[in-house]
Specification:
The chain is of the alpha/beta class. The protein has 15 helices and 16 strands.
Length: 455
Amino acid sequence: MLRRLGQPRHLGLRPSPRHPLQRSDQEHPRSRSLEVSLLSLALSMAISRISCAAIALGSNLGDREGYIHRALRRIRAEPSVRTTAVSSIYETVPVDCPPGSPTFLNAVVLVETELSPEELLARLLTIERHLGRRRGVKNSPRTIDLDLLFYDQQVRNTAELVLPHPRMDERAFVLIPLAEVAPDWRHPLRQQTVQELLAALPGDKIQQVRHYTSAPSPQQGRLQGKRALVTGSTRGIGAAIAAALEREGAFVWRHGRRNCASLSAALPADLSDPQAVQRLGELAWGTEGLDILVCNAGADILTEAAAAWEFEQKLELLWAVDVRATLLLARSIGQRMKERGYGCILTIGWDQAVTGMEGDSGQLFATVKGAVMAFTRSLAKTLAPEVRVNCLAPGWIRTAWGETASRTWQERVRQETLLARWGLPEDVAAAAVWLASEEASYITGQIIPINGGAC
């Protein structure tokens, strides 16, 4: 089934506080000296254009489906590369491979990028290495294979890169998934569309490719039977945390500021209103209580109407939603958990609250997230030993803002993170699941940075 990812709506996902000014790439939150140091880079990229490229994925060694999904996640995390569509996964017989080679899983991902074809290829080769690709006998089984199929209408024929990819027009396991995401792309040498190339293939080649259906995965159940409330969980990081908790067997109350009628278990509440915070806690606790509370909700002063507000107005809103609501809800639910004898509370901070950031937005976010982080440590002492309380401190997480940020910002991600890539909401969610599980039963009062080693 085609999964097409359209243009992200700035109103749809909560941006990471690390990116405090989004109205213009020139509104740089750092110091004047940093603006000057990046000026040449910004100017060189000013005339860069967005290109469309297709990448083929293949795996026939080990956890084939797992490697396909891990590669897709790594591509999503690459700076200056934006995933726009992903094909279904297909199972195919090996072609031109050593005898006895296992069957392949194949897919195609469509991306937009400001990178050159050579730069994009280099990124793909790096991902292959990180996922255990070892090159030996030609076409031998591999954990992952990432091929650059096309890059706009460009033609290359060098020792390092051939575009379009040679023999792609002869291979059903390439054309079938490619036809899902780019049916009208025209081969610059053959002068035929993908659909036309596919229609010209012999029937026996097409029959060798079939849709792959994942085997039902056993319930992991690290949180089986647990009940959770995740605030701000209709989108972005909060939605990823809620989904991850559900996959581990928890029942999750989701919360959003507006009507959440489309969700089966959702509680709308405006957290800037203390009475609404109290009602939310009472409704979520209900008669069965809560085992996990994730205070993720935060005010958006970057992309919504509040972006045009004065400093004092923004501070008031942030203080009400990010700080006061977190304190009131965590204290109320935490006391109930303590009286019952167990529970887990997670808050959301910001890695830059520790080091600071210049500019209005840096001051605002460092203030409110620093307060949440300090509160977390004190609450952990208050509720111990019955209730564990920890804080997740995300950094460069690719929410909606990161999808459309300029290449200047994309390069900053590579420069400032040891892993040289974006984090994803799923990375924060994975940490939340671990902290909520018994595997982290000796962890409390801690601030956990999730920032790819940024410092």
